[in-house]
Write a structure and sequence with these properties.
Oligomer: single chain
Domain HTH lysR-type: 1-58
CATH topology of the domain at 161-269: D-Maltodextrin-Binding Protein, domain 2
Order of helices and strands: HHHEEHEHEHEEEEHEHEEEH
Organism: Oxalobacter paraformigenes
Structural class: alpha/beta
Strand content: 25-35%
Shape: globular
Number of helices: 9
CATH class of the domain at 161-269: Alpha Beta
Pfam family, one: HTH_1
Family: Belongs to the LysR transcriptional regulatory family.
Largest sheet: 10 strands, mixed
Radius of gyration: 22 Å
Keywords: DNA-binding, Transcription, Transcription regulation
């Protein structure tokens, strides 16, 4: 087993298809498939389930993928630290965020940082809070933005914004487009589209629990961990969404109308976090100074 095989396997796991992984790695499909076969034979376990059109990881494959990501992350960190000593700030800075929060905080800071440190390259991974925590734990990223809360004691953090949740409708929805505020009771039996628990248990349960506490009958027609998908369903007229206000940054604001919620404390806090025991690269420490 060598580093190349780990890199190949991670690419296959992330792309879900041999063909896409081969394109990403700039190699032909047959040698990539052969390397996967050699790896499975050496380990004596099946890593990839090939019974479906798109490949999926077996249970053993999931465990191996997490460790392989961790090993590759440590190798990148070792290389970057050695280069920092010799050449100054350079290398790859791997970061992560949910799409909306990343759009809010990263682009301008990355631009400024690149001007000051042009030899640093960024790897920006996106995902919900659960995914960002996974990437942190496997050392794929050095720090990430998450919606709180996260497990106490495991992370250092810098607080970011605390924002209100809003009801989102189509801009041309005659029932809501003229409204600036509402109370939750008005949403009884209205078709709702909510963030899935996978996007953040707190984000999901806070909304549901608040409505239950007020005795409001909920009509949840869809839940998703993808904000773009939620907004697309609102755009198609499936229902109203209840979301943190920053999530609207993933789509043009003129497509939607936001209505504030009166009489309740639906709020979402976010922070930028990193592993408490992890030694951050020089580039990561310098970037964090911008927050």
């Amino acid at each position: 087993m060598d580093i190349r095989q780990l890199r190949y396997f991670c690419a296959i796991a992330e792309e879900g298809q041999i063909s896409r992984a081969a394109q990403r790695l700039h190699i032909a499909q047959p040698p990539l498939s052969y390397q996967l076969k050699l790896l499975e034979e050496e380990l004596g376990v099946k890593l990839i389930d090939r019974t479906t059109r798109s490949l999926s990881l077996t249970r053993a494959g999931h465990v191996f993928y997490q460790r392989a990501e961790q090993i590759l992350g440590m190798l990148r960190a070792a290389a970057d630290e050695a280069k920092d000593v010799e050449f100054g700030v350079n290398g790859i800075l791997a970061i992560g965020s949910p799409p909306a929060l990343g759009n809010l905080y990263f682009p301008e800071r990355i631009r400024r940082f690149h001007e000051a440190y042009p030899y640093v390259r960024f790897h920006w991974r996106e995902g919900n809070t659960f995914r960002i925590l996974e990437l942190l734990e496997s050392d794929v990223i050095e720090f990430g933005i998450v919606r709180l809360p996260v497990p106490a004691g495991a992370y250092e953090s810098k607080p970011l914004l605390t924002e209100s949740w809003v009801v989102v409708s189509r801009q041309d929805d005659r029932n809501w487009s003229s409204r600036n505020s509402l109370v939750l009771e008005e949403l009884a039996d209205i078709p709702l589209i909510l963030m899935h628990r996978q996007a953040g248990i707190y984000c999901h349960d806070m909304v549901v629990d608040e409505m239950k506490s007020k005795g409001i009958a909920t009509n949840i027609v869809c839940e998703s961990d993808n904000i773009s998908a939620i907004l697309a369903l609102v755009e198609k007229g499936l229902g109203l969404a209840i979301l943190p206000e920053s999530t609207l940054s993933v789509r043009p604001s003129e497509d939607f109308h936001r209505v504030s919620i009166a009489g309740c404390e639906l709020q979402s806090a976010s922070a930028i976090i990193w592993k408490k025991e992890k030694r951050l690269s020089r580039a990561a420490n310098l970037f964090l100074e911008q927050f």
